[in-house]
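Ligand: alpha-D-galactopyranose. Inputs:
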Amino acid sequence: MAGGCGAPNPSRDLSRGLARTPPMGWNSWNTFKDGVSDTLLRQVADAMAANGMRDAGYRYINMDDGWALPQRLNGHLQPNPAKFPNGFKPLSDYLYARGFKFGIYADRGTRTCVGLCPGSYGHETTDAKDFADWGVDYVKYDNCNPAFFSNQAGDYSRMRDALFATGRPIVFSLCAWEFKNWMPGMGQLWRTTADISDNWGRVLENLDANERTAALAGPGNWNDPDMLVVGCEDVADFQHGQVFSDMPELAGHPGLTQTESRSHFSMWAMMAAPLLAGNDVIHMPKWIKEILVNPEVIAVDQDPAGHQGVAVWENGKGLYVYSKVLQGVNARAVALFNRMDKDETITAEWTDLGIPKGQASVRDIWKHADLGVFSDRYKGFVSPHEAVLLRIVSVKPE
Ligand code: GLA
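Predicted complex:
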């Protein structure tokens, strides 16, 4: 859907009202690396339409790095014809017809991170126009191979302006691996962390790093702790064909357990993070799908008030209470999170959650069960690496 016409209004809202809740969808990188193709993306769309992911809210199908030929042609990026024999328009049409949106990957430097594909430096206007013509709705803009003497914020703002000038509403996702003060307002989401991998330690690192700028989250502005690794197997520890040189201990690790996968998903929802599945959704066991489509957990992430949850209590040894303000009066999503390796009980005090003392109803979100009305606090049993996810709402005195 092409949007505006004529010159952009100087008092323009650069966000065009996009991403009022955290974007949801799928991204190719965590599992398929540069093995993207027309066939793969169509199969992913078909699978997500059939398995309930689309209807649960996963709408963006985001193609990551590896789609372009090494050289431009007449100044234009070229979809690799071996992977995309018909270019992108028939593909984006196919995705729309099934209720999806199309995301693309580009880079602010001279080459993308896989190194073979050209970056957009100096070609922002051409590339943004091509993206709009191809039916792109989401651009992830990476940070590799910057041009000599280029300015990072300047590079990102040129693409932001070029996308805006196309008139097409396109989500701009900043992927510069850490937060910088110029990011809010530049794009609708910004990566706050290094690349995730399907490793519990890395998931926790990204969770903690993403908390520092929690106060900035809100409709159209999201901290991005990176894509989901729920259901990923032993692949994300390879980046650009190599084992992380700084983390050899990650090679060949077994990924996340079921409990850890649920906790990862719970905590991304608590943080109002973008929910971009990174696993092979075409071949996925039922337990993984059931995590990804859990409607009550997704509702925590997508709560319209758009607050990011933060830790409101910790014992210094690995037990945490996180609280996320939800729309409504004195309503909270709460995670009792046990990072330790043994069973524990964790207590959420209403005073820590910032709701009035007295009665509040407690619902267990994963169990889809109302637990009853509790006074002043709720104490829960939490197994190792589990995040018990609750919805706690003050009960008005009669
Ligand atoms: C960087 C990004 C990743 C992914 C790869 C692609 O590492 O942070 O998310 O896009 O590049 O090469």
